[in-house]
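User: Reviewer 2 asked us to show a designed sequence for the structure in our supplementary figure. I'm pasting the structure tokens here. Could you produce the per-position amino acids so we can include them in the response letter?
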């Protein structure tokens, strides 16, 4: 039995929902066969989100950690390849912090690549009928903070964990004027279940050798 921790974020920037938490709760409520799934909601706050993630990992003792966040405007589910050691906030977080060009971890490496098989994860999402792509930037806000943070926690405290970050599009209830792409959290959750099964079945250090690179 593979133990999974899946996290989503609290709503931010005045929103009333965050589809990352909606999707995370749906996956935990109906986990795929062979996986036990615990969900935790992280605060959208630079200062405390990595501590909350560490506490959730200590409580769940997972093999796999999948952190989710909302990326409004993206048309599909994107599997982040890398988290970078920079906080550069365009808007304040939920506690009013707005760091400009500060490191996530002072003295930490410039970036962490995820140790999840990003190509196999994208393939599994698509096979489940969910639009998906590899992403090479998680931005510079709290999601990148956690994309870097999970890499740092794995590197320094939880060496047996495989972890990464996935961005999900807005939910339809957030774009009622229909001017931006949206996906139902239940659809996202269906794809994430397939992603988790694929990640659990891919041996550490391996991935599909398929083209998913970006020219720009
Ligand atoms: N999305 C934001 C932070 C929390 C969330 O769900 C981001 O992409 O940084």
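Assistant: Here is a per-position design you can include in the supplement:
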């Amino acid at each position: 039995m593979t133990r999974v921790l899946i996290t989503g974020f609290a709503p931010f920037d005045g929103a009333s929902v965050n589809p990352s938490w909606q999707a995370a709760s749906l996956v935990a409520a109906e986990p795929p066969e062979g996986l036990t799934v615990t969900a935790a909601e992280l605060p959208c706050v630079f200062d405390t989100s990595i501590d909350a993630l560490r506490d959730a990992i200590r409580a769940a003792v997972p093999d796999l950690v999948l952190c989710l966040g909302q990326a409004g405007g993206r048309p599909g589910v994107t599997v982040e390849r890398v988290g970078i050691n920079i906080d550069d906030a365009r808007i304040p977080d939920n506690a009013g912090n707005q760091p400009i060009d500060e490191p996530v971890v002072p003295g930490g490496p410039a970036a962490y690549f995820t140790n999840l098989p990003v190509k196999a994860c994208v393939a599994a999402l698509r096979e489940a009928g969910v639009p998906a792509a590899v992403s090479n930037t998680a931005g510079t806000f709290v999601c990148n903070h956690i994309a870097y943070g999970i890499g740092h926690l794995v590197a320094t405290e939880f060496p047996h964990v495989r972890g990464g970050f996935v961005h999900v599009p807005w939910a339809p209830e957030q774009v009622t004027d229909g001017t931006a792409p949206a996906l139902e959290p239940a659809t996202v959750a269906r794809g994430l279940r397939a992603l988790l099964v694929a990640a659990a079945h891919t041996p550490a250090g391996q991935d599909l050798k398929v083209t998913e690179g970006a020219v720009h």
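For the response letter, you might also mention the following. Residues 9, 12, 18, 20, 44, 69-71, 139, 141-143 surround pyroglutamic acid (CB under 6 Å). The CA atoms of residues 94 and 130 lie 30 Å apart.
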